[in-house]
Amino acid sequence: MANYVDNKKLTKELGIWAKIVREQIECGDKPEKMTDYIAQCVFDICHNMSFKASFINYTYKDEMIGDAIENCVRYLKNFDVEKNQNAFGYISTIAYYAYIR
After folding, report:
1. Selection from 51, 100, 98, 48 nearest residue 73 by Cα
2. Global pTM?
3. Considering Cα of 47, then 65, then 39, then 88, what sign does the dihedral take?
4. How far is CA 49 from CA 59, 83, 98, 100, in A?
5. CB 72 within 8 A of CB 94
6. pLDDT digits (tens, 9 = 90+) for 43-99
Protein backbone atom coordinates (compact mmCIF):
# COMPACT_ATOMS: atom_id res chain seq x y z
CA MET A 1 0.00 0.00 0.00
CA ALA A 2 1.41 3.39 -0.97
CA ASN A 3 1.68 6.11 1.65
CA TYR A 4 -0.65 9.03 1.14
CA VAL A 5 1.96 11.58 2.33
CA ASP A 6 5.64 11.72 1.35
CA ASN A 7 7.21 12.52 4.73
CA LYS A 8 10.59 13.60 3.32
CA LYS A 9 9.04 16.05 0.86
CA LEU A 10 6.59 17.33 3.49
CA THR A 11 9.37 17.83 6.05
CA LYS A 12 11.50 19.75 3.55
CA GLU A 13 8.66 22.01 2.35
CA LEU A 14 7.24 22.59 5.83
CA GLY A 15 10.67 23.43 7.23
CA ILE A 16 11.28 26.06 4.53
CA TRP A 17 7.78 27.54 4.78
CA ALA A 18 7.76 27.68 8.60
CA LYS A 19 11.14 29.42 8.71
CA ILE A 20 9.99 32.06 6.20
CA VAL A 21 6.74 32.64 8.11
CA ARG A 22 8.52 33.01 11.47
CA GLU A 23 10.89 35.58 9.93
CA GLN A 24 7.99 37.49 8.39
CA ILE A 25 6.07 37.59 11.67
CA GLU A 26 9.20 38.74 13.49
CA CYS A 27 9.58 41.62 11.02
CA GLY A 28 5.89 42.52 11.36
CA ASP A 29 5.03 41.49 7.79
CA LYS A 30 2.01 39.50 6.68
CA PRO A 31 2.86 35.75 6.71
CA GLU A 32 3.23 33.91 3.43
CA LYS A 33 0.37 31.68 2.29
CA MET A 34 0.77 27.96 2.97
CA THR A 35 1.75 25.94 -0.10
CA ASP A 36 -0.86 23.75 -1.74
CA TYR A 37 1.18 20.62 -1.03
CA ILE A 38 1.41 21.34 2.71
CA ALA A 39 -2.30 22.18 2.85
CA GLN A 40 -3.22 18.95 1.05
CA CYS A 41 -1.04 16.91 3.40
CA VAL A 42 -2.62 18.55 6.46
CA PHE A 43 -6.08 17.78 5.09
CA ASP A 44 -5.17 14.17 4.27
CA ILE A 45 -3.63 13.51 7.68
CA CYS A 46 -6.53 15.08 9.58
CA HIS A 47 -9.15 13.34 7.43
CA ASN A 48 -7.53 9.91 7.59
CA MET A 49 -7.17 10.13 11.37
CA SER A 50 -10.99 10.08 11.55
CA PHE A 51 -10.85 6.45 10.41
CA LYS A 52 -8.88 5.31 13.47
CA ALA A 53 -10.83 2.91 15.66
CA SER A 54 -10.93 5.50 18.44
CA PHE A 55 -12.82 8.04 16.33
CA ILE A 56 -14.67 6.09 13.63
CA ASN A 57 -18.26 6.11 14.95
CA TYR A 58 -18.63 9.68 16.15
CA THR A 59 -21.51 11.59 14.60
CA TYR A 60 -19.59 14.88 14.75
CA LYS A 61 -16.58 13.64 12.79
CA ASP A 62 -16.65 16.64 10.44
CA GLU A 63 -16.28 19.04 13.37
CA MET A 64 -13.39 17.00 14.71
CA ILE A 65 -11.65 17.10 11.32
CA GLY A 66 -12.23 20.85 11.09
CA ASP A 67 -10.81 21.45 14.57
CA ALA A 68 -7.76 19.34 13.75
CA ILE A 69 -7.12 21.28 10.52
CA GLU A 70 -7.56 24.60 12.34
CA ASN A 71 -5.06 23.61 15.05
CA CYS A 72 -2.55 22.40 12.47
CA VAL A 73 -2.76 25.67 10.53
CA ARG A 74 -2.34 27.61 13.77
CA TYR A 75 0.77 25.72 14.97
CA LEU A 76 2.60 24.72 11.78
CA LYS A 77 4.69 27.88 11.87
CA ASN A 78 6.39 26.47 15.00
CA PHE A 79 7.82 23.47 13.11
CA ASP A 80 11.63 23.54 13.21
CA VAL A 81 13.38 21.16 10.84
CA GLU A 82 16.56 21.31 12.94
CA LYS A 83 14.73 19.90 15.98
CA ASN A 84 12.34 17.51 14.24
CA GLN A 85 12.77 15.55 11.01
CA ASN A 86 9.26 14.11 11.03
CA ALA A 87 6.64 16.56 9.77
CA PHE A 88 4.07 13.78 9.42
CA GLY A 89 4.44 12.94 13.11
CA TYR A 90 4.27 16.62 14.08
CA ILE A 91 1.02 17.16 12.18
CA SER A 92 -0.42 13.85 13.37
CA THR A 93 0.25 14.75 17.01
CA ILE A 94 -1.46 18.14 16.65
CA ALA A 95 -4.43 16.49 14.93
CA TYR A 96 -4.66 13.72 17.52
CA TYR A 97 -4.85 16.12 20.44
CA ALA A 98 -7.43 18.20 18.59
CA TYR A 99 -9.54 15.05 18.18
CA ILE A 100 -9.16 14.22 21.88
CA ARG A 101 -10.29 17.72 22.85
Report:
1. 98
2. 0.86
3. negative
4. 15, 24, 11, 11
5. yes
6. 999 998 888 878 887 888 889 899 999 999 999 999 998 898 999 999 999 999 998
